[in-house]
Amino acid sequence: MSGTLDGGFFTRLISADFPKKNYMTFISYSYLFIFLPLIVIFYHIFRTSWLANVVILLFSYFFYAVGGLWFLIPLMITSLIDFYVGRKLDAVSAQRLRKFLLVLSLTANLGLLAFFKYVPWLLDSMNHGFSAAGLAIVLPTLAVTLPPGISFYTFQTMSYTIEVYWREMKSSRSLINYLAFVTFWPHLVAGPIMRARTLLTQLEKVRPVISADEARYALMLIIWGLAKKIVLADNFGWIVDSVDGHIKTGFVWPGAGLVFGYAFAGQIYCDFSAYTDIARGSAKLVGIELVRNFRTPYYASSPSDFWRRWHISLSTWLRDYLYIPLGGNRFGRSLEFRNLMLTMTLGGLWHGAGILFIAWGIWHGLLLILYRLVPLDQMLEKLLGNIGKAVSIILTFHLVVFGWILFRADVHTIGPLLHSIAAMSTSPDWFYFDAIGRGVLILMAVVLITDLIGYLHDVECVELLARVNPYVASGIAAACYFAIVTLGKRESSQFIYFQF
User: Fold this and answer.
1) Which neighbouring-strand residues pair with 263?
2) Which of 40, 57, 131, 463 has the fewest Cβ atoms within 10 Å of its own Cβ atom?
3) Over the stretch 72-114, which tens digit does the pLDDT of each residue have?
4) Does the N-terminal peptide bond of residue 192 adopt cis geometry, omega within 30 degrees of 0?
5) 3-class SS at 152?
């Protein structure tokens, strides 16, 4: 049997070839000038009523379904299953039944995630393996479109049922409130991954009218995020794509891999943190606080410090619901290292179905284990003080950059990229100092300087800017707008984490 699975209408509905509308994104005019003002207006009209969460729910469904109405099907399946599982977990005391209900929730969520994200890749990989082995076996392929944000909302709903199972919180009694928690539009597609005890509890209360200072901070978050995305992330992305295109045409110069790694490090950080900034600003306008997802990650002094600063909502999720339940560091070094490696490997797989995502997770697992065996950061700081800490930060940054090369490359370009880095030792002109090389240095300097301000004050740079005189803040916002208009990429791309 070979070919593509044909399941009739449903298979064609979720096929990658099925016509899709454009997604509504935070950088679109329709979001900034129509959707966001309307939801803020309607929310405040019904703010003191239970209809406030109905407004949030309906607008969130619209925001998500613009890219494809069928996207609501898996979202509704996981939402309804976990809502009723949560209710049942509170109602029963028999431990065997409670375990069964938890397994039902986890199976439904992971089953949906696997169907859309991993089964097509697994079938393709098996076919490639059979072909390489000379076997005349061709499995049917499954072409499906990955629903945006499925990795985020499945992890979010799983954390809800797990915490109700652990009796760390009571299940929601209101289906409207629960659905608003799952589908809350600012974080639905790319996080941060919110816990029910943090977000659901806010939605269950009447939120006060936001103050002028809070509104100014929210708007500053939004325009700061827009500038990071359009001016920095998308220009970094142009450099990444340029190097990638050169590599694929056979033009490989010494150091190309390092340029590629630096550029992608800037792109993914600015892109993802920009999404979070705009999400947090949008949520603030309806009285909701989303968690901070980044804390100047490129100033981390060790791999574990990096994961305390990067994608914090995912790293804490993996820690609380995977690493600690596996045993954490409670049963000796060998099991601790096993748990670290398993957690990070699955973290890599969470990002995407592909061997290099797994390799990226393994790389970070190895780094965490290495620094537990040899705490280089502590040794350097003890030996050299602040200079040692600076060396640790630079070393950690480059270890992370190597991981980003694994993350972004494909099986065809990873070899030439790594070979170009190795060739730097024999080439005096290893860095490509024309537009591409200079562009990386200039853009990365902007990122590191603004993050240094936040690092030294242990807050986000945008928060410091929002605290200054309102007239100064307005000037900064105007400068961000000017940068967007003059320096931004005209063909702004989709947010990277939409694909996860």
Assistant:
1) none
2) 131
3) 999 999 999 999 999 999 999 899 999 999 999 999 999 999 9
4) yes
5) helix
Q: How many CB atoms lie within 10 A of CB 450?
A: 19
Contacts of 388 (CB under 8 A, 6+ apart): 379, 380, 381, 382
The dihedrals phi and psi of 339, each to the nearest 5 degrees, come to -65, -40
Q: What is the distance between the alpha carbons of residues 291 and 300, in angstroms, rounded to a whole number?
A: 19
What are the tokens at 40?
């803020």
199 and 184 Cβ atoms separated by less than 8 Å: yes
Q: At residue 493, does pLDDT exceed 80?
A: no
SS3 353: coil
Residues 366, 369, 374, 375, CA torsion sign: positive
Give 235-245 pLDDT, tens digit per residue: 999 999 989 99
**For the chain, first and last CA: distance in Å?**
31
CB 341 within 8 A of CB 362: yes
Query: How many Cα atoms sit within 13 Å of 90 on the Cβ side?
Result: 15
Which tokens hold the place of 2? Answer: 């070979």
- Determine the 3-state secondary structure of 141 from DSSP: strand
Tell me the catalytic residues: 351
Round to whole Å and give the CA distance between 162 and 151: 16
> Phi then psi for 195, rounded to 5 degrees?
-80, 150
Percentage of the chain exceeding pLDDT 90: 63
CB contact burial 123-136 (16+ within 10 A = b; e otherwise): beeebeeeeeeeee
- Contact between residue 247 and residue 416 where contact means Cβ atoms under 8 Å apart: yes
Containing 16, the helix (H) or strand (E) segment is: none
Contact 395, 374 (CB under 8 A): no
Closest CA to 287 of 32, 58, 44: 44
CA atoms within 13 Å, Cβ hemisphere of 12: 2
| Residue 464, φ and ψ in degrees, nearest 5 | -65, -40
List 4's β-bridge partners, or say none: 141
Q: Does residue 3 carry a pLDDT above 50?
A: no
499 secondary structure, DSSP code: G
Q: Inter-axis angle of helices 212-227 and 256-284, to 10 degrees?
A: 160
Write out the H or E segment, with its range, that includes residue 212. helix 212-227
d(CA 339, CA 328): 6
Query: Is the confidence at residue 495, as pLDDT, over 90?
Result: no
